[in-house]
Specification:
InterPro entries: Mycobact_SerProt_Inhib_Rv3364c (IPR053141), Roadblock/LAMTOR2_dom (IPR004942). It comes from Streptomyces mesophilus. This is Roadblock/LC7 domain-containing protein. The chain is an alpha+beta fold and 148 residues long. The longest helix is centred in the middle third of the chain and has 26 residues. Helix content is 33%, strand content 23%. The chain contains three helices and five strands. The protein has a five-stranded antiparallel sheet, sandwiched between helices.
Amino acid sequence: MTGTIARLPDLGWMLHPLIAIPGVRHAVVVSEDGLRLGHASAEDLSGPVAALSVGEAEALSAASAAMTMTGRSTAGLLFGEGARIRQIMVESDLGFVLFTHAGAGAQLGVATDTAADVGLVAQQMQLLVAKIGAQLSAQPREQAAPTS
């Protein structure tokens, strides 16, 4: 049995309101299982990652899925099985990375520098999810039929 692989639409265009916020460097839309659905970088950036490449966005997507699974395990341990992860924040010496639930099966990630207003970024992430959450959602992939 031969199947076809459907190309996922690039949802990076939806991220432009986020990358326009001062201090925001990159944004990514990620499926729950770590597939990159789209990404965007602010203009005129300098530093080690001036523009997020597809490979870097895919690595960030995979990291997002791993952090979410770890967060889900931690929340389940502390608050019970039904506890869902709404947002994860990682702080480094050079900035912040925020991941938030963005509809069924999807997450939204934003990387900032240290000068960013993280509260404003988190608020704008939530507003974007509320505004276009249906487009950010990722349908579960179909199970492959067993081969004989």
